[in-house]
Design a protein that fits this description.
The protein is of the alpha+beta class and 198 residues long. It contains five helices and eight strands, in the order ααβββββαααβββ. Belongs to the DNA glycosylase MPG family.
């Protein structure tokens, strides 16, 4: 499998969001590889979306969102959690896709240590390992240090895989926001057990 190219990310946020479903998110930590299939995302477009961090314009916190597609935008929320987003579009667009849920593939033992400080997991813990944006960052050890990292490099990147068919994608309202709540901008793979909220 090949890495997604820069041109993949430099497109409309909704096209990228849907096409990220099924792709393989990879994180290298020294000689270890953590990976998983992206199964749920949310689109954010600062030009019309009041819940997007970029809606208020460029700030020190959100400046990565304005640098153009192919970067990782990591932010801290609720004073305790990190969330990882894929920046899309062109420079100054202010668009990104939040990775909401991942189905773990490789490095599950290390993810389990990062999340639960143990390697033997119950079935419920396996499902809960990466089925939420904060859980993903904890499992994959993504912090503010990874904010702005290029997805074209070799530390964090996304591998191509067959595109999920439109009929297999569910569309819903986003979760945990207080503004622009009615926009149906959450996309997830139908029937996948790792989706955060059905």
């Amino acid at each position: 499998m090949q890495k997604l190219s820069e041109s993949f990310y430099k497109r409309n946020v909704h096209i990228v969001a849907k096409e990220l479903l099924g792709k393989i998110f990879v994180r290298k930590i020294s000689d270890k590889i953590l990976s998983g299939k992206i199964v749920e995302v949310e689109a954010y477009d600062g030009s019309i979306d009041e819940s997007a961090h970029s809606f208020i314009g460029k700030t020190k916190r959100n400046e990565v969102m304005f640098k153009g597609g192919g970067l990782l935008y990591v932010y801290f929320t609720y004073g305790m959690h990190f969330c990882a987003n894929i920046v899309t579009g062109n420079e100054n667009d202010g668009c990104a896709v939040l990775i909401r849920s991942i189905e773990p593939i490789e490095g599950i033992d290390l993810m389990a240590i990062n999340r639960f400080n143990k390697t033997i997991l119950t079935q419920k813990e396996k499902i809960n390992l990466t089925n939420g944006p904060a859980k993903i960052c904890q499992a994959f050890k993504i912090t503010k240090n990874e904010n702005g990292i290029s997805l074209l490099d070799d530390v964090i990147f996304i591998l191509n895989s067959p595109t999920i068919k439109e009929k297999d994608i569910s569309v819903a309202k986003r979760i945990g926001i207080k503004k622009s709540v009615d926009l149906p901008w959450r996309y997830f793979i139908k029937g996948n057990p790792y989706v955060s909220k059905k």
